[in-house]
């Protein structure tokens, strides 16, 4: 018996650019639905957060994902950047919670290890693998590729029946 396909919304949070990507699950053939970037660099702080929140709500309403996958914050150099990024993540998580969509979170290392095979892969490597895995004719923009990579990571883990606790231990496959 084949499992029912599920829609996965991947989100790469950013305070200036937030990437998003929607795929439909499938162990051997995930299908690309849509991706893009929410650009808020020209807005003030609170307007940025409002715009990100409203945009994520619209994407959820339009594409009806079964799960929202958000990349965990990993900033080790600048505490102010970490706080700003955390605020953007907060409105994304809030949008998913308000829309009653389950949320999964993965570290950048988990995502890169799953998609590229190296936990510290570069952005161009992620873009290349996302393009190939989804059979896209063009390379997605960096932030959109990162969001699609989050969705693909979750799809891979779920197709293998792995849970979040197992994932946090750095399981390789």
Automatic annotation (TrEMBL):
Reactions that this protein is recorded to catalyse? Endonucleolytic cleavage at a junction such as a reciprocal single-stranded crossover between two homologous DNA duplexes (Holliday junction)
UniProt: Mg(2+) 2 binding residues: 71
TM ranges are none
Q: According to the record, how does the cofactor bind?
A: Binds 2 Mg(2+) ion per subunit.
Q: Active site annotated at which positions?
A: 12, 71, 143
A single Gene Ontology biological process assigned to it is: DNA recombination
Q: Which UniProt keywords apply?
A: Cytoplasm, DNA damage, DNA recombination, DNA repair, DNA-binding, Endonuclease, Hydrolase, Magnesium, Metal-binding, Nuclease
Q: Give the superkingdom in one word.
A: Bacteria
Looking at the keywords, is Magnesium present? yes
Q: Which InterPro entries match?
A: RNaseH-like_sf, RNaseH_sf, X-over_junc_endoDNase_Mg_BS, X-over_junc_endoDNase_RuvC
Q: Which cofactor does it need?
A: Mg(2+)
Protein location: Cytoplasm
Q: What molecular function terms (GO) are annotated for this protein?
A: crossover junction DNA endonuclease activity; DNA binding; magnesium ion binding
Q: Which family does it belong to?
A: Belongs to the RuvC family.
Task: Describe its partners and assembly state.
Answer: Homodimer which binds Holliday junction (HJ) DNA. The HJ becomes 2-fold symmetrical on binding to RuvC with unstacked arms; it has a different conformation from HJ DNA in complex with RuvA. In the full resolvosome a probable DNA-RuvA(4)-RuvB(12)-RuvC(2) complex forms which resolves the HJ.
Show the NCBIfam families listed in the entry.
PRK00039.2-1 (NF000711), ruvC (TIGR00228)
Role? The RuvA-RuvB-RuvC complex processes Holliday junction (HJ) DNA during genetic recombination and DNA repair. Endonuclease that resolves HJ intermediates. Cleaves cruciform DNA by making single-stranded nicks across the HJ at symmetrical positions within the homologous arms, yielding a 5'-phosphate and a 3'-hydroxyl group; requires a central core of homology in the junction. The consensus cleavage sequence is 5'-(A/T)TT(C/G)-3'. Cleavage occurs on the 3'-side of the TT dinucleotide at the point of strand exchange.
- This chain belongs to the protein called Crossover junction endodeoxyribonuclease RuvC
Q: What organism is this sequence from? A: Thiomicrorhabdus xiamenensis
């Amino acid at each position: 018996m084949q499992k029912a396909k599920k829609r996965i919304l991947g989100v790469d949070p950013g305070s200036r650019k937030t990437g998003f990507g929607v795929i439909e699950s499938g162990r051997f053939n995930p299908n690309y639905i849509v991706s893009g970037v929410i650009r808020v660099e020209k807005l003030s702080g609170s307007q940025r957060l409002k715009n990100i929140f409203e945009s994520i709500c619209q994407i959820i309403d339009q594409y009806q994902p079964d799960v929202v996958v958000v990349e965990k914050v990993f900033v080790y150099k600048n505490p102010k950047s970490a706080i700003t990024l955390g605020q953007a993540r907060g409105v994304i998580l809030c949008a998913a919670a308000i829309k009653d969509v389950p949320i999964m979170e993965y570290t950048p290392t988990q995502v890169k290890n799953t998609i590229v095979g190296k936990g510290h892969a570069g952005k161009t490597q992620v873009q290349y693998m996302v393009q190939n895995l989804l059979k896209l004719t063009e390379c997605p923009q960096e932030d959109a590729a990162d969001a699609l990579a989050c969705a693909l990571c979750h799809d891979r883990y779920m197709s293998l029946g792995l849970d979040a606790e197992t994932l946090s231990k750095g399981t390789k496959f």
